[in-house]
Amino acid sequence: MAKTASKPTNPAPDPTSANTSALTSNGKMALKVKSSRPKSAKKPKAAASKRKAAKVDAKQPKKPPTAFFYFLLDFRKEFQEQNPDIKSMRLVGKACGEKWKQMRYEEKVHYYDIATEKRAEFDRATADYNKRKASLFATLFVVETGEDQGSEDSEYDG
């Protein structure tokens, strides 16, 4: 007599378990994961979880570009002249990055010098901006005591 394989009996699924199994259309077992969140609950808004951007002062100086971006300006012009049929900025950017990596330091010095000059201008402008901002802040929030600071004699002195 040949023994026939019998399916093992599965115990009833545990109601506290997060995983349950179900049969698929082809008869195989598939594992389904229950969500811990009820279906009626809404997803949290992504905008609420992000930090709110700080208000930017329009008069604040902007950071200057790096040396690579000054190189990119020059390279883009040359690349467009040599390859007028390529309009994709992705391809231009890739070609520029490859060229920048292959350049020697001596070739990059010109762009580093430009970036250094612009950075120095930015630092001076930032210092001036901070001075103006501090003086404006001081004039707006000066607390007046009502007393004349230049004269120590009081009208009540005899």
TrEMBL record:
SUPFAM superfamilies: HMG-box. One of its GO terms (cellular component) is chromatin. The keyword Nucleus applies. Its main location: nucleus. Residues 16-27 have a biased composition (Polar residues). The keyword Repeat does not apply. Keywords: DNA-binding, Nucleus. Residues 34-53 have a biased composition (Basic residues). Residues 61-130 form the HMG box domain. Pfam families: HMG_box. It is found in: Nucleus. Residues 1-61 are annotated as: Disordered. Residues 61-130 bind DNA. It comes from the Eukaryota. GO terms for molecular function: chromatin binding; DNA binding; structural constituent of chromatin. GO terms for biological process: chromatin organization. Belongs to the HMGB family. This is HMG box domain-containing protein. It comes from Escallonia herrerae.
